[in-house]
Amino acid sequence: MKGTIEAEQNTTYSEVINELRRKGTQKQDGLKLKKIFNYRKWLKVIDTLAAGLTISNLANQYYLTQMLYYNIPQYTISTEYNNFCYLGLIFTSLLLICILMHHIIKYKVTNIKKANLETEGFKQSSISITLEIIICSITSLPNVNIKFTGTIHNENYFYHITDIFMIIMLLKCYILLRLYEHYSKWTSLKAYAICKNYLTTADAFFGLKSDLKDRPFLTIGFTMGFFVVIFGIATQQSEKCYEGKSSGIDKLTNSEWLIIMTMTTVGYGDFYPITHLGRFFCLLACISGMVLISALVVSFNMASEFSRDQSIAYLAITTKNRENQWFGTAANVIKAAFKMAKHKDFFTRYKSNIYLRKCVFNFKRKTEINALMDITSAEMLYDIQHKLEEKLLATNSIICSVPDLRKRCESLKSNQNILNQRIQEVLLQYKTIHIKYDIGLK
């Protein structure tokens, strides 16, 4: 008897200890999530500041290229040029600090998520950090006047080091894409928690796919405008210092017009690239334009599709139109019969008889078609849609309850343990009463 009670007490103690451990791990998970959310807030501030510094640095560098190109004489170093170079160095230094802070915070977040960070992916992340620092550290230096010259198609060209840096610095625009993960509704903290329940990640790619389904025209238009600006600046810097260049291509608006014509595969021919770099950037613009235009066609196709109610209304309207045509053929038969009875001449009656047979034939054919179409399109399609919706709703309710299955099982287990304890208490009381009753009888 005592051994049974001690075993039951040990079982109860072990269950209580396991429950406390489970609550402790849940509390630790909550603390980890809270730390991750705090780090994400800091990342949002740092990435926003880095994006602003990137735009300022690119605008400063573009102004330097325009200053050297339109100076008289061209490409001469001035005091104003050196001052803007110093300003670019300040922007670049602050940007590098933001990038280092970004990766430090990402390292802490990854360290929370993965305990084996030292063995998984650290070399790859160090390579990406090094490459990012190299790209973001590129900027024009004061008192540096280096030119690269050559010939293409028997025409001279030269590239200043500032123009080359401008083209390379366009790679910094990837920093602007980081803002998408912070400001999109598909990557918010609530979306992150929901995606975690369904074993997926609310990252930038998930947000981009969601926006392509939710608002495809705005997403594709914004992406196309982004590419037009980037490739337009790169084409302008590649073509403006070539002696045999197309007239007016050294202006940014004309270069962007060339990129628009290239991306939409129109190609009026009023502007065209001649240098190898200009053709390369136009080729990239053409490939990206074909991808975006094909996505736009798919979006138009999806937008033109009927909803469930619209498809039912369309079928009802077409059915009504067929009925009206059927009534029209029946009216033609009646009119032809009256005309045939009215005419007394043999030739006119013969013509009326042929016309009556034609009307009867059309009436029979319309009757058969309407009978087949009424069965297949209107009623059967509506019934199939209604049954499919019921089954999908039932399946959806089952799927949505899967993430809560673990919590339900744990609650059932805890309830079962409580019931077992109460049953054991009732049995002990029953045995005690039975023993006292036996003693009383003796």
UniProtKB/TrEMBL annotation:
<feature type="domain" description="Potassium channel">
    <location>
        <begin position="228"/>
        <end position="300"/>
    </location>
</feature>
<dbReference type="GO" id="GO:0016286">
    <property type="term" value="F:small conductance calcium-activated potassium channel activity"/>
</dbReference>
<dbReference type="InterPro" id="IPR013099">
    <property type="entry name" value="K_chnl_dom"/>
</dbReference>
<keyword id="KW-1133">Transmembrane helix</keyword>
<feature type="transmembrane region" description="Helical">
    <location>
        <begin position="217"/>
        <end position="237"/>
    </location>
</feature>
<keyword id="KW-0472">Membrane</keyword>
<protein>
    <recommendedName>
        <fullName>Potassium channel domain-containing protein</fullName>
    </recommendedName>
</protein>
<keyword id="KW-0812">Transmembrane</keyword>
<dbReference type="InterPro" id="IPR015449">
    <property type="entry name" value="K_chnl_Ca-activ_SK"/>
</dbReference>
<dbReference type="GO" id="GO:0016020">
    <property type="term" value="C:membrane"/>
</dbReference>
<feature type="transmembrane region" description="Helical">
    <location>
        <begin position="42"/>
        <end position="64"/>
    </location>
</feature>
<feature type="transmembrane region" description="Helical">
    <location>
        <begin position="84"/>
        <end position="105"/>
    </location>
</feature>
<feature type="transmembrane region" description="Helical">
    <location>
        <begin position="157"/>
        <end position="177"/>
    </location>
</feature>
<feature type="transmembrane region" description="Helical">
    <location>
        <begin position="281"/>
        <end position="303"/>
    </location>
</feature>
<dbReference type="Pfam" id="PF07885">
    <property type="entry name" value="Ion_trans_2"/>
</dbReference>
